[in-house]
Write a structure and sequence with these properties.
8-stranded antiparallel β-sheet; 23% strand; 7 helices; 3-stranded antiparallel β-sheet; Multidrug-efflux Transporter 1 Regulator Bmrr, Chain A; Multidrug-efflux Transporter Regulator, Chain: A, Domain 2; elongated
Length: 267
């Protein structure tokens, strides 16, 4: 069947303006364009393509992604990898919006908007001792630190001999594929699934306590880098975050009571 553009607009629930735009973008071309009048005509194949575009738009695919899918996929099996990637993207957005929701709830409830006083404690330079640690290194997101610390503690059991901490090997902030190592001091060598022990070298380090949610720890890094710049000190990777007080194994607790020491070793 052949449809004039107005008829096709009603059948697809796409405005004439949108249909013209999709044509310009090479996303949904008419079956025929009259060379004299420029009138567009659409057929049943166009109708099926429009339905596919609408379904993909409902799944939050952008026009560039849809164009790639339509060019690359012939059936649902080939579409699966695009759907899996979109599902992971959506999960990331959900995590981000949940953080925003918690922050909004805190502000509406009159929670602290400023960094607590403990976050403004003085920067210290001190010597960190060499220590025997068990570490589990992974590539992923910062939100995965807790679950990987859980795996590490299950391997260490009663051999854990100090506060857990994290080593950040990238030297920059990454939203995905961050190179992270969760660690815990141990009293003797531990081996387990993806867990290995070694001596972690110490050295002189600039240290600063941060009290509050982990999302705000960037302020502590800013102060440390400013101090290093004023003193002409070069810092090395990885940076360390030592969890002096954080969420429990079952209850998260109040994030404004979390206490983390950021340690940046001198090069």
């Amino acid at each position: 069947m052949e449809y004039q553009i107005g008829e096709f607009s009603l059948a697809t629930r796409l405005s004439v303006k949108t249909l013209r735009f999709y044509h310009e973008q090479g996303l949904l071309e008419p079956s025929y364009v009259d060379p004299d009048t420029g009138y567009r005509t659409y057929n049943d194949e166009c109708l099926r393509r429009a339905a596919t575009i609408l379904r993909l738009r409902e799944l939050d695919f952008g026009l560039k992604e849809i164009r790639e899918i339509l060019a690359d996929c012939r059936d649902d099996q080939e579409l699966a990898r695009y759907l899996a990637a979109k599902a992971e993207e959506v999960r990331g957005k959900i995590r981000s919006y949940k953080r925003i929701e918690r922050r909004l709830a805190e502000l509406l409830a009159g929670g602290p908007a400023e960094q607590p006083p403990a976050a403004r404690r003085e920067i210290q330079e001190r010597s960190l001792e060499d220590q025997l640690i068990a570490g589990l290194r992974f590539t992923g997101r910062y939100e995965q630190i807790g679950e990987n610390l859980g795996r590490l503690f299950r391997s260490c059991g009663r051999l854990a001999a100090g506060k857990p901490f994290t080593l950040y090997w990238d030297g920059e902030y990454k939203e995905d594929e961050a190179d992270i190592e969760v660690c815990v001091p141990v009293c003797r060598v531990v081996h387990g699934p993806r867990v290995a022990s070694r001596i972690l070298a110490g050295g002189r380090a600039l240290c600063l306590l941060h009290q509050g949610p982990y999302e705000r720890i960037g302020e502590a890094y800013r102060r440390l880098y400013e101090e290093a710049g004023r003193a002409g000190i070069r810092l090395q990777v990885p940076g360390r975050e030592v969890y002096l007080r954080g969420p429990g194994l079952i209850l998260a607790g109040n994030p404004y009571r979390y206490l983390t020491e950021v340690q940046l070793l001198r090069a």
